[in-house]
């Protein structure tokens, strides 16, 4: 048995970590964190190996609550029809394929390409509404509403329902990836029940009134063979996308603007050379990924990073640390938009669960930066602000970012 280093002080929901997660990263390839009862995996090669071996490393815990829920909270979820294993990202084969295949089929490159003019127009409209004579919060003005509008309209959610859906996504983040108090957890659980019910009702309504949207495309697949993709499964896919397609991209845009403005020469360079923007987005995904941690659980005893892990070991795949692995990315703490291998980032996962929306997320961030650099070449951060981050392990980006032009 190879001993596993233990880091008792490692607490990814603590204040110091939330402020700067990589400031004091332990050296060990794999260490145990008693604060969470998780094994933390820090090296690129080990994280990649985990992603590529779903038989040994199950995705079952990918969105389970990080800390055990009180029985009452669990009951609220179950009684409301919110099963603990509900969606694509936490299913293993073969169940995973039943949802992934139709979702990937409906999420065609044509649909993503067709979104480009709408994304650009939405970014322009949002930026036109900004009063640039004063300081403004870039998250509220652009990073947050842009992906929300794009994703919810892509899915076919009526605009009047967007605020509700957005609030439910917030409950979901706290419940599955945060450390809510028992009262907060109960509130979030009740919200999750409403969220699931809403999506079921949406599928039923869309079945009778189709639109040229993602829900409509999934319903067409259902029509071909109702057994292969049920309405309940369509609601589950919408549950996946409503969250995955929004919070991640909001945070990516926020991280991009923050990291570019914190060294003014970075911003000036992109203003002068906008062709570099897509590569800069990839470099941000390596340097400061909006999904910094993802999870797996072992299905058998296995040795990883020199450590013997038992069956049932819960793994905290530290994607942000893997992006700073010097074996893969020379001078990893240097931000370099011309780095030739930034695209090797594990920020979108790898293997069978590889992010369905990676092209869309990149496109939204690229177009947002193109519009922003063009309209606000002299943009800068407001001095002295403390940037707030939501206390959860998997979705990281500024909650507010004050800038001035
Ligand atoms: C822009 C930043 C984004 C980041 C950093 C990101 C990251 C990730 C990660 C880390 C995973 C898990 C991969 C794994 O387990 O191997 C994932 C899965 C997924 N993402 Fe994204 N994502 C982003 C945007 C999006 C968008 C825009 C959409 C939807 C349009 C989306 C939809 C999904 C779905 C449906 C899955 C589950 C795939 C499966 O289980 O087969 N993501 N993403």
Describe the structure.
The protein is an alpha+beta fold. 48% of the residues lie in helices and 8% in strands. The protein has 16 helices and 10 strands. The strands form 3 sheets. Strands 1-2-8-5-3 form a 5-stranded mixed β-sheet. A 3-stranded antiparallel β-sheet has the order 4-10-9. The longest helix has 27 residues. The mean pLDDT is 92. Protoporphyrin IX containing FE (HEM) binds next to helix 11, helix 12 and helix 16. The site of protoporphyrin IX containing FE has 28 residues, from helix 11, helix 12 and helix 16.
How would you briefly describe this protein structure?
The chain has 405 residues and is α+β, with helices and mostly antiparallel strands. The protein has helices at 15-19, 44-51, 71-79, 95-106, 109-128, 138-143, 145-155, 162-177, 182-208, 214-224, 231-244, 247-261, 264-272, 277-287, 319-322, 358-375, and strands at 30-33, 38-41, 57-58, 136-137, 293-298, 302-304, 307-309, 314-318, 380-381, 402-404.
